Every structure is written in C-alpha cells, then in structure tokens.
Amino acid sequence: MTSVITDTTKTRRGAVSLRKLTKDYAGSRAVDGIDLDIPAGEFFTLLGPSGCGKTTTLMMLAGFVEPSGGSVVIDGRDVAHVPPPDRDIGVVFQNYALFPHLTVFQNLAFPLEMRRLGRPEIARRVGEALKLVRLEQWADSYPGQLSGGQQQRVAVARAVVFNPPVLLMDEPLGALDRKLRLQLQLEIRSLQRELALTVVYVTHDQDEAMSMSDRVAIMREGRIEQMGTPAELYETPVSVFVADFLGDNNTIPARAADDRHVMVGDVALRTPAHGLARDADCVVLIRPERVRISDAPATFSGVVHDVVYLGSASQYEIDVAGAGRLRCAVSHNGGHAVWEPGRRVGVELPADSVHVMPGDPTSKKE
Ligand SMILES: Nc1ncnc2c1ncn2[C@@H]1O[C@H](COP(=O)(O)OP(=O)(O)OP(=O)(O)O)[C@@H](O)[C@H]1O
C-alpha cells in the first residue's frame, strides 16, 4: 500500500515567502520588515538571541499573530490574514501542547476529525504517522504515560498527520536533555527529508541550527542580519555580531593601513582587501582554530597564558603584543606539542582566515 503522506508531498508544495513582514507592539517594533524566500523542501532556521523576533516571525507565519504590515505567501497565496487552520501548516512548540485527556491515537486523530475525514482514513493516517515516529505501540497510552522525548515525537506526528507542506517548529527540543536533543535532531531531519517538508525552525542554539539546517537566518532586533548556509555564515560573517553568534571567535582591535594591510599594534597584518578608509578603526576577526602557533619566529610574538586540554584539541590563551589575549585551538592529530604557560611562541593570523570589518568589538552573543 502506498503512503498518503509521502505520495502527495512529491508535488513539492511548501514554498514560503515573507515580504516586508512587520509587527509592532505598543510602540516597539518586534519584527522589522523581513523579506525571505524559502523554497519548498528546505530546512530553514531562524537563529538569534532572546527577544530578536524569531517567535513573532514564526507566529505570523502560523497565523497566531496578526502582522502589522507585509505579507506571508505560501505557494503563491497570500495568507497573512487567513486563520491558522486554513493555512495548511503544522506547528510544534517547545511544550508539547498535547491534549492530556486524549490518548496518543486520539491526539493524532484530532486534526483529521477537524478536517472531517472518515474513520477508516483517520485510522490509516494516524497509523502511518505513528510509524514515522516509531510509536505504534503507544497508540492507546495517554501523554502523561510517555517520556518527554516520546511526547515531543507525538507532537511532531500530530503536526504532520494531515499532510501539511510546511512544518513550523519553535524551540521543539528546548525542554529535553542534551543526548535526547541530539537524537531527536537526527529524527526530525530524516522525517523532514522523507516527507519533503519545508521546515521553518526557531532556535537560539547555534549548534542545533548549524547541524540541522540547509540555510540559517541570523536575526537581530527584528531584522535579518545575515542569511546563508551554515558554512557561509561561519566562514564569511558580515558582522561581528554574526561571527560572535556562530562559534568562538577572536576579535582584535585594529586600524586600516592600505588596501592590503591593517595595523595590529605596531604590526602590519596582511589581509584581503577591505575597502576601509586609511586610519579607520576596524576589527580583525579570526576563529581560534585558524590561529597558528609554533616555536619559530612569526608575524606576532606571544606568551602562553593558559592551556586547557579538551581531548581532541588543546585550547590556548596567548598574550600577543598589540593584539591582546587570543584563543587558539590546536587539534591533536596523533601526538601534540604542549606549550606550557609562560612559554614564548610565534603566532600567525593567516590572511585567508581573517575577516576585517568596521564594527563594535564589544558586541557579544547573549
Ligand atoms: N505579545 C507581546 N506583547 C508585547 N511585546 C511582545 C509580545 N510578544 C513579543 N513581544 C516583544 O517582541 C520582541 C520579540 O519577541 P520574540 O518572542 O519574537 O523574540 P524571540 O527571538 O523569539 O525571543 P526568545 O528566544 O526569548 O523566545 C521582544 O522584545 C518581546 O518583548
């Protein structure tokens, strides 16, 4: 027997577009004119610090929050003012939101009854959805009899049981412990691929965003600061905010010299062209794993302040003249050299690993 759920998704429904989407709350702007195109079948994540407008954006997509302006278009249809049940969108929240007095089967049947499907069809679809999340044997249990992870799998099954092309998820794994979270990340990703769903996912956890998403939008104060694949965001951040939000980062105050150099203290550091005015204040960004240290003389000279053994790598803190205290991660490929605190080392900041930008070096992720 062919699956109703997988059959109909082959048509690739689920393209989502937001145009100048805005939400004002009593004089303050929570979402500030967001433009976004998410192709059908993409796993797209809104990532950002608390209060940046992720949930408000998602709720406008779902229809639970009325936009102050702009449009929400799904497969060419503007749904900005269409009630939630008529949008054909599945939603999963952090706090499962299952009906405690209904069995797992009845929870899943609910959205199908709302859509007035017949009993045999409901039984078939609920069976398929439970199979997808491997909970067939729990059909007659109540949510309170299930673990947190199982309850969230029921919530996911309930959100896809009526075969929506778009699934919205707001911090769905936030209440679970780390091990379970990693397992459910994999399960959600494989379910998304199997059903060819468009997923719009909200999280403030950068690792979760990086490991699950095709593309990520980093939000800041109601706007999208940068959008791209996880690798694009990590490798070529457009701002200190993005670089700080995704992964660890050294932020070094500098001054523009010419098109190919910036001054870090007294040292002229070669960098890619950056187009800053001569003598302009700027910052040099470099990831800890890109900082090179050695016993040989190098562009910079530093003294090891501290070293932490992390198993696969050692993390050094090095006081570098003119650059301040830098973090440097040295991975252990087989053996590894250990530089003790107090040891003088040569430090290189390779030109292909640094980003130079105007910016506020005090900007830190929350
Ligand atoms: N119902 C509301 N009434 C007034 N202000 C609101 C309301 N909902 C959200 N806000 C405000 O809008 C801004 C964005 O909130 P939102 O919940 O979308 O952020 P978020 O990025 O999802 O944060 P978090 O990760 O903490 O959930 C915040 O300043 C918040 O205080």
TrEMBL record:
PROSITE patterns: ABC_TRANSPORTER_1, ABC_TRANSPORTER_2. Transmembrane segments: none annotated. Residues 16-246 form the ABC transporter domain. Keywords: ATP-binding, Nucleotide-binding, Transport. InterPro entries: AAA+_ATPase, ABC_SmlMolc_Importer, ABC_transporter-like_ATP-bd, ABC_transporter-like_CS, Mo/tungstate-bd_C_term_dom, P-loop_NTPase, Transp-assoc_OB_typ2. One of its GO terms (cellular component) is ATP-binding cassette (ABC) transporter complex. One of its GO terms (molecular function) is transmembrane transporter activity. It comes from the Bacteria. This is Spermidine/putrescine ABC transporter ATP-binding subunit. It comes from Saccharopolyspora phatthalungensis.
